[in-house]
From TrEMBL:
It comes from the Bacteria. InterPro entries: Aminotransferase_I/II_large (IPR004839), AspAT/PAT-like (IPR050596), NHTrfase_class1_PyrdxlP-BS (IPR004838), PyrdxlP-dep_Trfase (IPR015424), PyrdxlP-dep_Trfase_major (IPR015421), PyrdxlP-dep_Trfase_small (IPR015422). Transmembrane segments: none annotated. This is Aminotransferase. PROSITE patterns: AA_TRANSFER_CLASS_1. GO terms for molecular function: L-aspartate:2-oxoglutarate aminotransferase activity; pyridoxal phosphate binding.
């Protein structure tokens, strides 16, 4: 297993569940779930599909209808023109990312991962036999990768760079100019491919979908895999629909792996995804506006907690909170808070608030909290966190 452990998110979910089972009222700020429901017309489409008998295996690479809907969405949102044989539908974008790595990595191949990062990138690379090369992104650059840091991290073994926009967990949003600077470096290194993960592309607060590399620099399109999914944009986390678009030869390899492992995605979920992508898109801006208000309120409240500080992000539904001010302090039970993992454990065990430790995201001392929760939950979580911080000596 190459030292692979269960993903930190799944371990946290299990512990929160255990505590809840003992009757504790745990507020979960650690998960990637949105509290919004999947839109009604999407659920209706799934119901209709089931009643129509669309309950059989679909083509491994996805139904023609969903591939067409993805093709249209990529054109609409990014002016990117992909043919159907350049698109694959996957079981969540997780599978698109992993299968791409599995298809391409040889032992000792390196994958550049800007930090802070979505934790599974690292273990996915290791599982596929490669080596993650983590490049820290400074807070004073908005947690975004600098062109010169990318250049310095490149070696003859670099096979991929992962570019997530906007970034989980920092919420950083790469502008077109930011991406152009990165593209200029990559154009000088023709052997490096780009895994462009746009899962949160519509959870942005400036009204336009987050740009993706292939639309910024068409010369990189032949070596870019544009990955996204329905989970966050349409609150369809559990439906498990993702997709990848890229050169036909790579897409064929991804499909081959998919055919031998999980096979195609759920037929019902694919029908639902067509309705989400083809239907009215107002839900995206409406929900982004709600999240923006929650973001501002939560950031304001957390900045009132002794030892914590955060800056409202431009995208995603996470706040990355600097907790340097609580490190070294002592909890009422005498335990010293030495790391952000200790602080996360303290908040969970003593304040009934589950947060994500920065250690698992490549950035310490920080915690990541989600504001994809109802306002009342956010207010209560902030109250509990404030009390917990005040109790530290
Ligand atoms: C940055 C990022 N990429 C990919 C994924 C995978 O999402 P899914 O498999 O639900 O599409 C997640 C999930 O939280 C994520 O945060």
């Amino acid at each position: 297993m190459r030292g692979i452990k269960a993903s930190p998110a799944s371990v946290l979910r299990r512990r929160a569940r255990e505590l809840r089972a003992t009757g504790r009222d745990i507020i979960e700020l650690s998960s990637g779930n949105l509290d919004f429901p999947t839109p009604d017309h999407v659920i209706a489409a799934a119901h209709d599909a089931a009643l129509r008998g669309e309950t059989r295996y679909t083509d491994v690479d996805g139904t023609p209808e969903l591939k067409q809907a993805v093709q249209a969405a990529l054109l609409r949102d990014h002016h990117l023109d992909y043919r159907p044989d350049e698109i694959v539908i996957t079981n969540g974008s997780t599978q698109a990312l992993f299968n791409a790595l599995l298809a391409t990595l040889a032992p000792a191949d390196e994958v550049i991962i800007p930090a802070p990062y979505w934790a599974p990138y690292l273990d996915q690379v290791r599982l596929a036999g490669g080596t993650p090369v983590v490049v820290p992104c400074a807070q004073n650059n908005g947690f975004k990768l600098r062109a010169e840091d990318l250049q310095a991290a490149i070696s003859p073994r670099t096979r991929w760079i992962v570019l997530n926009n906007p970034v989980n967990p920092s919420g950083a949003l790469y502008s077109r100019e930011d991406l152009s600077e990165i593209a200029a470096v990559l154009l000088r290194h023709p052997d490096i491919w780009v895994l462009a993960d746009g899962l949160y592309e519509h959870i942005v607060f400036n009204g336009t979908p987050a740009p993706t590399l292939a639309e910024i620099e068409p010369r990189l399109k032949p070596r870019t895999l544009t990955v996204s999914g329905l989970a966050k944009s349409y609150a369809m986390m559990g439906w498990r629909i993702g997709y990848a678009a890229g050169p036909a030869a790579l897409i064929r390899e991804i499909i081959t792996i998919q055919s031998q492992t999980t096979s195609g995605a759920s037929s019902i979920s694919q029908a639902a995804a067509v309705a989400a992508l083809d239907g009215a898109q107002d839900v995206l801006t409406e929900r982004a506006a709600i999240l923006r208000a929650r973001r501002d309120r939560f950031a304001e409240l957390l900045n009132e907690c002794a030892g914590l500080s955060c800056v409202p992000p431009e995208g995603t539904f996470y706040l990355l909170v600097n907790c340097a001010g609580v490190i070294g302090k002592r909890a009422p039970d005498g335990k010293v808070i030495a790391t952000d993992r200790d602080f996360s454990a303290y908040l969970l065990e003593q304040a009934d608030v589950a947060v994500f430790p920065g250690e698992d995201l490549g950035l310490s001392p920080h915690i990541r909290v989600s504001f994809a929760n109802p306002s009342a939950t956010i207010e209560e979580a902030a109250r509990r966190s404030k009390r917990a911080c005040e109790a530290l000596q």
